[in-house]
Design a protein that fits this description.
2 copies of one chain form a homodimer. The first copy, chain A, is an alpha/beta fold. Helix content of chain A is about 40%, strand content about 15%. In chain A, strand 8 (about 155-160), helix 7 (about 175) and strand 9 form a beta-alpha-beta unit. At the A-B interface, helix 3, helix 4 and helix 10 of A face helix 3, helix 4 and helix 9 of B.
Chain lengths: ~375, ~375
């Protein structure tokens, strides 16, 4: 291949050169002052992106590790109401089942959550609520603030997966009452895969489970982060911390509001293209729900074969995502996270439009031109 | 500082340039064929270093994560006899306590293990034995083969922490009857911190626990590794995999026997220097136990203050390790793992000798010259 394909996936996403270069360094001692400063830089910027003043820790493990840390440290043995309208909601249910009693509150993938059913579970005594804020499997953004209000009304802890929204869309963990919030490194933060971060409220600490895992024991993270030189309880993935710090500095330089506006414009451009071409967006939204601002999911037009369609796009050096599990072959997804802007989006939409035509679908209008109107 | 200090620690260790450069690449899709090939290369070389034909998985998490995976997947709710003669043995006890009933079999740090007490625990029904093969906190190598024979005699699973021996000293997991074996990336493999690997025997799979964690669920790792394109169940730390693959290719190029011989010679040189200077090695060994071949622990001569001593060495751009926990201020440790050879060892020993003199200890003879005799 002439170079790595352009990844327009809902993660991993292309990394800026400065982020990649940061990993190249010789090993440093992770118990030293330099590492402590790196960790502190990450925490400072991530707290802003989370919209929180709570304690925040970086975990050497993917977003799934952080989700498990949330449930295992604060929900062990408890009843957990898990909202689910996509693959990552389902994963939260599975994690809840491993550590507590899961009460699944399900909707079809990409359709609105059932908040009345959630309230019924809370009224029956659920002590924790889990929510995927931005469900990338279906391209839907869920109403975190409303869920937070319900959780608070019944004095339950609110765990929010912000893995694919934080750093790219507005998140106000504290204002929304989200007690435990997590993000992954390789999504809107545009850092390499392999790290996650988690914030923990005072209310959550008061309910810390007696039974906790070891590697993901957040009490140990808390103790190590409070040391004179900030550190992690076990050996951290040092090169990934160096890269995440650089990614965080880039976020500060761009400015969080500008970064969120860019992500929204990116997604709006993709949606405008879909509308112009006559391609239906996949999620069914209502007043509480919205289209995701970091990934757009669209229905594959009838008769267009997924593998030929995405294969034609891949031939042009671009990777977009298909559907997962039962949506395989039914939808396609374009991630617009991280360091992506007009060049990547226009190239992707041109390739998508071409691949649709090649596979027998004739767009109603010019999607690329419509995207230019948004991006220009 | 003019550059990163030379890390002569029991991990992290200096990385060869080829390993560091491998991380710099643009993001790749971790569900694609290229990543599958990277993972497969790691597994091939690591199996050789483990001395195993068992299944082997790479985990995005430190050696501690892999140790917890071993205990949580195969010892959950069971009685676990945990051998302990140092800090990492103690950590294994703590992990065992989180997931099962731990039966601690303790010796003073750096003294021989009590194999008779182990046999008594096995006779009383312990179903799992945990051992730290190379205890870096005290510089002692424990008798894995003997422990393996005892475990097999009582039909218990044998979990071996080979975190700081594999890739630098001889390990024969299968011949020793070690059912579950783990390694960390930033030790003798000379890769960056943040990954670990674990091998699992057929006997162990037959006893897979019903209750397992999620992120560290080895059944999920097994399923994903067996897919048409080898993969991990959750997002892996891709840059670290790329670096580990490069580190593994370097191991193949050097040849495992030559690499082990080099590590042994390195440690022998440090021991020869200690003997020449009249510095006492810390561990008390017997016929079953040996000095570590990857880290040398020595008693700090009476009256030499730890911080001044190591500070003088740090001033010369070299970091060696002190003692941990109750050995702080009592011992010092020189790691000779990974990509280190004569230049690093001679510089370190010269600095150590100088720092001893500076702090009032007068060596009996020339340690540097003694090391040259071994290395030359």
């Amino acid at each position: 291949m002439e170079k790595e394909p352009l990844l327009m996936l809902p993660g991993p996403v292309p990394m800026p050169e400065r982020v990649r270069m940061a990993m190249m360094r010789q090993a440093i001692n992770h118990r030293g002052a330099e590492f402590g400063a790196v960790y502190a830089d990450c925490v400072r910027v991530l707290k802003e992106a989370f919209g929180t003043t709570n304690e925040l820790f970086v975990i050497s493990g993917s977003g799934t590790a952080a989700m498990e840390a949330a449930v295992a440290n604060f929900g062990s043995g408890r009843t957990i109401a898990s909202l689910e309208n996509g693959k990552f909601g389902e994963r939260m249910v599975k994690i809840a089942q491993r550590h507590g009693t899961a009460r699944k509150v399900s909707s079809e993938w990409g359709t609105p959550l059932d908040l009345a059913a959630l309230e019924a579970e809370l009224a029956e005594g659920a002590e924790m609520v889990t929510l995927v804020h931005n469900e990338t499997s279906a391209g839907i953004k869920n109403p975190a603030e409303k869920v937070g209000r319900l959780a608070r009304k019944y004095d339950a802890l609110f765990v929010m997966d912000g893995i694919t929204s934080i750093g790219g869309d507005e998140v106000q963990a504290d204002a929304w009452g989200a007690d435990i919030v997590v993000v992954g490194s390789q999504k809107c933060l545009a850092a390499p895969a392999g790290l996650s971060a988690i914030s923990v409220s005072g209310r959550a600490w008061e309910r810390l489970s007696e039974k906790r895992p070891y590697y993901l024991d957040l009490a140990a993270y808390r103790k190590s982060a409070a040391a004179k030189i900030m550190e992690t309880p076990y050996t951290p993935a040092v090169p990934l911390f160096l890269a995440l710090r650089e990614a965080c500095l880039l976020i500060e330089e761009e400015g969080l509001p500008a970064r969120i506006a860019r992500h929204r414009r990116n997604a709006e451009a993709v949606r405008a293209a879909a509308a112009a071409m006559g391609v239906r967006l996949y999620p069914e939204i209502d007043a509480d729900h919205a289209y995701s601002n970091t990934v757009t999911a669209a229905a594959l037009p009838p008769g267009v074969p997924d593998s030929d369609f995405r294969g034609a796009i891949r031939k042009m050096g671009i990777e977009i995502a298909g559907g997962q599990d039962h949506l395989k072959g039914k939808i396609f997804r374009i991630g617009t996270m991280g360091a992506t802007g007009a060049p990547e989006i226009l190239a992707t939409l041109a390739a998508v439009q071409h691949a649709l035509v090649r596979n027998g679908f004739h767009p109603a209008g010019d999607g690329v031109a419509a995207a230019c109107e948004v991006l220009g």
